[in-house]
Amino acid sequence: MLLVLCVDLDDDLGRKTGFSTPVIGRDPVEEAAVALATEDPEDSDVNVIFQGLHVYDDLDSRDESVEVAVVTGNEDGDVAANREVGDEVDTVLASLSTAEDVTALVITDGAQDESVIPVIRSRVPIDGVRRVVVRQAQNLESMYYTIKQVLNDPETRGTVLIPLGILLLIYPLALIGSALEMPGFVLGTTSALLGLYLISRGLGLGNRLDTAVESARRSLYAGRTTLLAYVVAAALFVLGGVSGMNELEGVQEATTGEVGAPVMVAALVYGSVQWLAAAGVTTSLGQITDEYIAGNLKWRYLNAPFYVVAIAIVLHAVSAFFLDLVGISYLATALTVGTLLGIVSTLAFAVVESRLEESDDDPDDDVDTESHPQPDRA
User: Fold this and answer.
1) How many CB atoms lie within 10 A of CB 19?
2) In a domain, 140, yes or no
3) What was the pLDDT predicted at 377?
4) Residue 139: inside a domain
5) Average pLDDT value for residue range 181-201
6) 233 and 354 co-located in one domain
């Protein structure tokens, strides 16, 4: 018996149509091909499956013993996908009710899918491999469309566009420090902008930006307080940075000589920690409010503001100690208070949550208060 084996290494059939694989038999395979063609007519695996049906019909018309099946891998990677294909080939072979020796004709759409051939050969002898190539894709007039489709594919555009963008950025970087005449400046600027655009396309930053804007728009219309909390937190974060820089400048002016790196970090933290703590408390309260409105609030979520305050206390005390603003006793007290605040809040909310869960899980003890008539005593 000849087994016509259509290979879909990245499981486009399962991901796009929901078909469970492997698909065995002419009618189920035809149904799967139509479903995939309806869902994504441009998928090359559609041609692979229809080619398998064509080969099956041709051999069947000659009264040859033949069967057709579709096996798929997954999108996790070559090794995992090859193993998945091997398992599905075993399933197909186990389902064939024949006493004849089984050989396979493998049909693929490219070299990537053909990497699984050694896995198939280890399970069944292979009579041949047929690669399906669409005739129109060989014409020069379709080159633009092919390149466009490749660049729109998330799996390939990163490997193509990012290196090209980096190469285009090399030219303007090479011009830094040299005398720039007008033609060189124009070419360098154009090359830099084009390189940045290709890198952003390769990383999919445009889609991510569109997703972020859509999410913000939905949050605004839904009345979510998290959006407002993030805006306020961003303003507080900027104020914290300015305050930290002002503190650092004050320390540098008051210090004779060079200021060490630990003191510089301590000055930045000391000047900004209260603003950053306010930003953290604001965002956590916004998220807690949204969870409460959505009905998903858990008591342990309330730990977040206390954790932020505890961390702020510790950082404030440590930075003040490095700046010689407080003594060792204040530092020890602050460390103790911050630690206890985090531990107490965790224990308190954990106990409350566990008590509430126990009260919800325990069935109510129903007491039968109905009075029963007592039998007459003789």
Assistant:
1) 19
2) no
3) 43
4) no
5) 76
6) yes
Contact 132, 48 (CB under 8 A): yes
Which H or E run contains 3? strand 2-8
258: left (phi over 0), alpha (psi -120 to 50) or beta: beta
pTM over 0.85: no
Residue where the block lists tokens 């320390």: 251
Dihedrals φ, ψ of 4, to 5°?
-85, 110
The answer on 338 and 231 residing in a single domain is yes
Tell me the C-alpha distance between 315 and 338, whole Å: 10
Does the structure show a pLDDT above 90 at 228? no
- Do 122 and 196 have their domain in common? no
Point out the least confidently predicted range of 71-80, 325-334, 361-370. 361-370
Residues 226 and 353 in one domain: yes
Position 28 in a domain: yes
Residues in the chain: 378
Give CA–CA dist 256/248, Å, rounded.
14
Give φ, ψ of 90 to 5 degrees.
-60, -40
What is the domain extent for residue 30?
2-133
Q: Residue 222 has which token pair?
A: 């839904």
Map tokens 């994504």 to a residue. 40
**Mean pLDDT in residue range 111-116:** 76
Over range 172-178, report the average pLDDT. 62
